[in-house]
Amino acid sequence: MSDTKPVIYVLNGPNLNLLGLREPEIYGSDTLDDIAGMLEDRAQEMGLTIDMRQTNHEGMLVDWLHEAQAEGARAVLLNAAAYTHTSIALLDAIKAISTPVIEVHLSDPSTREEFRHLSYIAKAAAKTVQGHGAQSYVIALEAIGNGEV
Ligand code: CA2
């Protein structure tokens, strides 16, 4: 039988492949695979499917945002990492698709260095969840499940 559950793209940007291996005091000790597992468990309860990806390349994130729309994804969770604070290309890509995008951060960039206070992603995202460690992703997923996004 084919799987017709709505798909949530979970897109992760540069250096997040190192999660759990460095700077646990800022980002926690969960790896990206741990977070994928948490999301898959919660998504199953909610009747959703997770497609979790990570790249260190800005253009790949742009391509995946376009793909999310083309493939009919229900929504995107996006942790653009440092590109959050620099990327007009990602802002334009979010504006160019109708798929809702939720901005996710492990830390709370607004309480960190000044250069992290500006988020280009927030200018187009349907919602931002930040500062809850790995739980930020789960909270963002639940916002889709409860119809907030
Ligand atoms: O808090 C977040 O999720 C961030 O998106 C993480 C980014 C940072 O540039 C943003 O301001 C906030 C950094 C991701 C780097 O990930 C690392 C993981 C382990 C060790 C070092 C970096």
Care to describe what's here?
This protein is α/β, with parallel strands linked by helices. It has five helices and five strands, in the order E-H-H-E-H-E-H-E-E-H. The protein has helices at residues 24-27, 32-46, 58-70, 88-96, 135-145; strands at 7-12, 49-54, 75-79, 101-105, 127-130. It has a five-stranded parallel beta sheet, with helices on both faces. Helix 4 links the parallel strand 3 and strand 4 (101-105). The chain is globular. The mean pLDDT is 96. Bound molecules: ligand CA2. Ligand CA2 binds at residues 15-16, 18-19, 22-23, 27, 79, 81-82, 84, 105-107, 109, 116.
Short précis:
With 149 residues, this protein is an alpha/beta fold. The chain has five helices and five strands. The chain has a five-stranded parallel sheet, with helices on both faces.
Q: What is the CA-atom radius of gyration, in angstroms?
A: 14 Å
Number of discrete helical segments: 5
Give the proportion of residues in helices: 25-40%
Bound molecules: ligand CA2
Largest sheet: 5 strands, parallel
> How far is the first residue's CA from the last residue's CA?
29 Å
Secondary-structure-derived class: alpha/beta
- What is the strand arrangement across the widest sheet? 2-1-3-4-5
Residue fraction in strands: 15-25%
Number of strands: 5
